[in-house]
Fold:
Amino acid sequence: MQRLIVLLLILVCTNSIGYAQQVIKLYSGRAPGSENWNWEEKYLENSSWQTPVVYNVTEPSITVYPAPAGNNTNTAVIIAPGGGFHALSINSEGIDVAKWLNTKGVTAFVLKYRLVKSLTDEPTIEMGKAISGNGADKYDYATVLPMTMEDGLKAVEYVRAHADEFNIAKNRIGFMGFSAGGNVTMSVAYNAEEKNRPDFIVPVYAYTGRLPGKTTVPSVPMPAFVIAASNDNLGLAPHSVDIYNKWLAAKQPVELHMYETGGHGFGMRKQNLHTDTWIERVADWMGEHGWLWPVNPTGWKANIDYKGWKKNSMEQELLNKNDWANFRRFAKDNEAIGAPKAGEQRVVFMGNSITEGWKNSRPGFFSGRPYINRGISGQTTPQMLLRFKPDVVNLKPKVVVILAGINDIAGNTGPMTIEQTFDNIVSMAEIAKANNIKVVLCSVLPAYDFPWSPGKEPAGKVVALNALLKEYAKKQGLVYVDYFAAMADERKGLSVHLAKDGIHPTEAGYQIMEPLLEKGIAEAMKRK
Structure:
């Protein structure tokens, strides 16, 4: 109980505070055409749509959701939520989409475009009545719809003009819109010029009635990924088919996903239907076009392209199903190594990609020494615990170096608590001790964010786990190597100098780690 209380206190004290997203107004003054609008934008948490909405938008803006620094594809998507021009389904069709795209390395911009004035504080109910024809004449759609188009065009223009600031490519700006936001998407696509033309579009159950301006398919390439459900309860499925047919006739790249069920407004909601994975299909399509890979890839990405990575990922997924702990990875190598020679002070390194990459980044550190690297990229402590006997104990080392836990915090094999990770590492240490193997327990390296799984705020969790490991090592008389103290920056993360992606050490990072570990190994060798 005391250990749990200490852990909770550390987590409370060290978790980083979230910062507000950057909001950028699209016009320097009042938006043209609505200068006299004097009502205020409002937010409704509990709407009849069972999702938060924003309404009475008078000042168009984009909210920036930047791609993680270590996983930036240089691609951007502007997202226009739907809501029948009465409201914006700001979470399900906006923020949640943006955060999901961030996990793929895409910078997202959630667009708030101008809406008709709500006559009550129940804009979603008003929209329902207006669609049914009950009081639709109370709203000035004829004036507002051209404004929504102008807001969309202005958003593309702004993002392209400031592409360098956002670290995105000027020719990788997409536009995605839902329902009424799909109307904005199509009006932008039809009426854009070079400065404000999206490079690809993703209309999702788009409404294409009352389109302002031109309705001619652009002559320049503009790939489209069109999504809807056949049972759209607003009857909008034919609108998506019409977009597809127009793009096809114009010989434009186009893909249509017409789901049998899903209804209207599924967005990022989970309904246990095929539509739950629509955004993953968008990612597949974007990957095929090359938009999910950096323009100038560095590090390991420089040696492979998206398709190669996808192939490897699928093979890894199959391997996980058939050999979750990856026993096969070192089976032949372990057999070939055999027992230690007389006087051999064998050391086995058990870990994940940080351990595996060590040998590739610093081969000289392992050359000519009885060091055996048994790191496997992406692995979590339960996987390592399973293979600890064949990959460590059976090799009969004098010392084992255990560096593990960061992938548990990232959730690579599912959610895990700090206590569960700690217990797995302790189990490995106890197995080692039972087999007369000296243990060098390493701190988890600092981590501010995960490029492959952003938003998990690992910094405080790393501190908490390290506190438990340090305490355990002290009580058990084990060597504890503190990489964290030597490498952490002011954010409790790793600087770009030490880890370009914030997780995997550069050569400079390993150069800090090596003398610390050598001292730890030497100390472990002396202990009885």
